[in-house]
Amino acid sequence: MLESLKEAVWEANMRLVREGLVRLTWGNVSGIDREAGIFGIKPSGVSYDDLRPEMITLVDLEGAVVEGEFRPSSDTATHRILYRAFESAGGITHTHSPGATAFSQAGRPLPCQGTTHADHFYGTIPVVRELSPDEVAENYEENTGHAIVAHFRDEGIDAAQMPACFQRFHAPFAWGKDAAKSVENAVALEMAAQMALATWQLDPRQPGLPGYLLDKHFLRKHGPGAYYGQEDRQVAADPGLQEDASAAQS
Amino acid sequence: MLESLKEAVWEANMRLVREGLVRLTWGNVSGIDREAGIFGIKPSGVSYDDLRPEMITLVDLEGAVVEGEFRPSSDTATHRILYRAFESAGGITHTHSPGATAFSQAGRPLPCQGTTHADHFYGTIPVVRELSPDEVAENYEENTGHAIVAHFRDEGIDAAQMPACFQRFHAPFAWGKDAAKSVENAVALEMAAQMALATWQLDPRQPGLPGYLLDKHFLRKHGPGAYYGQEDRQVAADPGLQEDASAAQS
Amino acid sequence: MLESLKEAVWEANMRLVREGLVRLTWGNVSGIDREAGIFGIKPSGVSYDDLRPEMITLVDLEGAVVEGEFRPSSDTATHRILYRAFESAGGITHTHSPGATAFSQAGRPLPCQGTTHADHFYGTIPVVRELSPDEVAENYEENTGHAIVAHFRDEGIDAAQMPACFQRFHAPFAWGKDAAKSVENAVALEMAAQMALATWQLDPRQPGLPGYLLDKHFLRKHGPGAYYGQEDRQVAADPGLQEDASAAQS
Amino acid sequence: MLESLKEAVWEANMRLVREGLVRLTWGNVSGIDREAGIFGIKPSGVSYDDLRPEMITLVDLEGAVVEGEFRPSSDTATHRILYRAFESAGGITHTHSPGATAFSQAGRPLPCQGTTHADHFYGTIPVVRELSPDEVAENYEENTGHAIVAHFRDEGIDAAQMPACFQRFHAPFAWGKDAAKSVENAVALEMAAQMALATWQLDPRQPGLPGYLLDKHFLRKHGPGAYYGQEDRQVAADPGLQEDASAAQS
Questions:
Q1: Residue contact B247–D44, C-beta within 8 A
Q2: CB contact under 8 A, B212 and D99
Q3: pTM of the prediction?
Q4: What is the pLDDT of residue B228?
Q5: DSSP strand E in C14-126: where?
Q6: Quick check: is A48 catalytic?
Q7: Which sequence positions of B are flagged as catalytic?
Q8: CB count in 10 Å sphere of residue A245
Q9: Residues C72, D199: C-beta atoms closer than 8 Å
Q10: Are the beta carbons of B206 and D106 closer than 8 angstroms?
């Protein structure tokens, strides 16, 4: 069942490797079919070399394995809680990519330093607190999801506009409208982290990107006024396009 | 039309990926046919995996799409303004390569630290200011081009000798005599940035390259006295070459 | 003899290259057959390009070459001493990977900074002292092994729970239940080292991972309560799995 | 003529690319036939993609091109002067690899920080001064060679034991017994530089490798007492090898 979902989730997991975001088995991508209420996720501890689309495990939003002969990722409960709370998330990516993991380990939020960040994340990447001993003792991975959701709710952060966080002492989570987009946000997060490290080496007292530039960059790619990419094909194909119009769309 | 231009622009875009300067779709290369007054540029938001020569969009210097079924890069208006102002530019490359982007984010110019830099850039890589709220509100990408051109004009910088800049809070632009050379300058800019970061880690109070060495390195590769490469084939092929001559040309 | 051991040791050595942990011939992996009391190890100074399974040299725990036409790695005596002392070690990897070598050169132990580290190493990665002039003068490589063993014994460190160390002024050693696992621990060690460098650039006064999180992460992957991976296949394949159970295992 | 020399020099140049030490055309390797008094070197400005063995230019020690239709590397005169002065050099490699170039730009010598360095370089990697305006004005590349040679002579450094240097404001040169070994020393130099940067990030006040360990590591690989590698094949193949002997050779 849900063969195209499994294929897309497999492809997104393999891309994680090609993008250089994962070593060993430190990462996993899932994607959800919202109508079915079922998500596919990488099986636990399986090498990326051995991973095949039919090995993607299907899990429902109650946590039951619906299909698949492999135990799902040990992080499955975290994904499940995020899918339940973040309706805009169609895919979720967890990695231990080095720059983003350094921010997680240092417990340092990442204010927007430039347009690379602003094209993907509308503001400061938040740090979600570590779990308490009690939360760790039972249902650790599920509680990880609850901590992320509580942080976004308490701080009034819109998960659709801030599709990533650093989990304190652990590593990043990123999401997007589907599995592939969640991987792209994980790439953007890692690059924003690495670029910030180098930026602060040059000047540790950076003011960060002015708000009107953050608005411009995030909103030209996301939301109703977006004009980046090819979604509006008939306009781009019009050779009679006038200069003013072109400048506004370029 | 302009098939060889589209092929060269496509090849330069693909090289950007091979050189490791681009992640996701964060980059674009264009190249111009000065006689026709038309440049080819990467289509917006198209994955490099899917890019083919016939997908390169042709745009004229008024901003009209002349050929191509894809909307051109969102940075097209910036390229267009640069082509209009910088006559020596036959190709333009925009990337978010991490070292050069860090300089852009930090708003720090890069004084020449050594010969790697001097072989490509005749002096300090300038930082071009961020746009104002008004400039961002309308024709953002076009105004980016105007800000670069104004900076070079106001500071008396010759774009033929300084084929790159850092756009504040954004990322670098580089240019060259054709699309391929603009990519090479983008590579040199990234390496100069990374090397400067490491140089200043070793000693933050570097004086930088003395002027006479900057002259020597830039001018032996550029301008009428250049003797690097194979442009003057008959000399190199002469086995009777005397030592003095050889030393002067080596 | 021991063809499958030689094959596994060869494969682990080749993986060291694919993982980017080795330049030139700076690294070697061995694996032991505990019943036979014989280990296979990379031959000394042979390029990885030329390495074939049949070139793996077999050595016994007294140091005698049992089979193989090539002289074993110059580090063979170190491996031998570690195998004699660390019963849990089924494979040993030595590299000069840059992050871990920096810790070795700086003589700085690596306290656990996050879960990436905790998933592989149960506490602080120790630094083993440099050898004395006398220890260097004779049986240098054997004495390297003795110094490591003495450090673990004197400090009460369990080699099964801390499968790596930094050898002062030299480079890391890592081990695991077989040759492949020792390479994985060498990868984890390098990444933990690189991530710590970036973490401390963000904040040099990190407290490190709280003990209860260290326990959780190390013990969910190691020991009797482990629930990561696919060792317990029948549970994962049960589609009727209830939520509580799933959360505990996810 | 000298077909095998051209093949070896070509192979060494291509390896420079595979080792990641070169971007664009920033590097060249040469190798000499001491009996003929002729060295082969990469042609100037030719892309590594296009380089073929028959394109290697042959030059004699007076600087005359002996064979080849391409102008030799612009650094040819530097190589020539080094071959004339350093009799042990059978191959020379010049790169702009980033770590070693940072040391060159910072004008900072690299004292031995650990065994990776000690296995290749017997002591501190020296910085050779920048050229004066007069030296730059005429025969710049030849004068670069003279400055290196003068530094080694004045400081009493044996080029056979210290096969590399940083040229101030420029980049490193490395050499070895043949073209391939000079590339290996260029790799070791880059890694030693990168590892030192990370070591000093952990602790800027490192004492460096004690002298007796430097002696041990350099001399076990170089000179009459060397026991690393396979040069002494009959010993390694002896399955009756006793423990003491094995320990001494391992």
A1: no
A2: no
A3: 0.91
A4: 59
A5: 27-33, 38-41, 57-60, 65-67, 91-95
A6: no
A7: 119, 228
A8: 14
A9: no
A10: yes
